[in-house]
Amino acid sequence: MRFTGHIFDVEGTLVDTVQPNLLSLQEALAEFGISVAYDLLQLYSGLDANQKLQLVAPDIAEEDRKEVLAAQGQLYERKYLPSVKAFPGVRESFEELKNRGGRIGLATDCKGAPLARYLSLLGVDDLIHSVACGDDAEHGKPDPRLVGLALSKLSVPAAQAVMIGDTPYDAEAATGAGTAAAGVLTGGFSREALLGAGCLVVASELGELLARLGSFRL
């Protein structure tokens, strides 16, 4: 039996946003007089934003973290969001999944203008059965609640669902929600890092990954 439910991360998995997100955070931190190397930020790409800041800039107080994240959001929307692009072949991949009876969900901690922009770029609203976003949960990945919410909306048993993302934190969230995990290399993490976090299958890009998952038997 194949997977019947496919839950996708968005940023870094369906839309090419990793570098813009990290650059906007690096610039926002610099505005507060804090210098953080890009390579260090990359290690925590995809992690819950508040947790990420605690790791890369541990001396920042909680209230200041909120200000940094607000500044990053404004900078990202103004400087980077208008030029981000979707990865090629997403709609075609979703159409194939739906044509073979699969149900598709999104689990992403983005929301508001960025999420609206991504959905516009992807053009897959008619193919998606559920969306769980940053408006629906207080904590981002690896907290499993976003994935769990997307799963509950899909009406697919956890054992028949797979979470597809680009970071180890996506895989950890999937495991916590009781689903399988699979990974793409578009987020800047190594194959070993994704496999080590629990991914059953890792591929260079989405089309290759879904082809391999299509032949995977539960």
List the helices and strands and how they pair.
Layout: E1 5-8, E2 15-16, H1 18-31, H2 38-43, H3 49-56, H4 62-80, E3 85-86, H5 90-99, E4 103-107, H6 112-122, E5 130-132, H7 145-154, E6 161-165, H8 168-177, E7 180-184, H9 191-196, E8 201-203, H10 206-214
Parallel strand pairs: 1-4, 1-6, 4-5, 6-7, 7-8
Antiparallel strand pairs: 2-3
Helix pairs in contact: 1-4, 7-8
Looking at this protein, list some descriptive labels.
13% strand; alpha/beta; 218 residues; globular; Rossmann fold; 10 helices; two-stranded antiparallel ribbon; DNA polymerase, domain 1; six-stranded parallel sheet
Please, could you describe this protein's structure?
This protein is α/β, with parallel strands linked by helices. The protein has 2 domains: 5-16 and 85-214, Rossmann fold (3-Layer(aba) Sandwich), CATH 3.40.50.1000; 18-83, DNA polymerase, domain 1, CATH 1.10.150. It is built from 10 helices and 8 strands. It has helices at residues 18-31, 38-43, 49-56, 62-80, 90-99, 112-122, 145-154, 168-177, 191-196, 206-214; strands at residues 5-8, 15-16, 85-86, 103-107, 130-132, 161-165, 180-184, 201-203. A 6-stranded parallel β-sheet has the order 5-4-1-6-7-8, with helices on both faces. A two-stranded antiparallel ribbon has the order 2-3. β4, α6 and β5 form a beta-alpha-beta unit. The radius of gyration is 17 Å and the shape is globular.
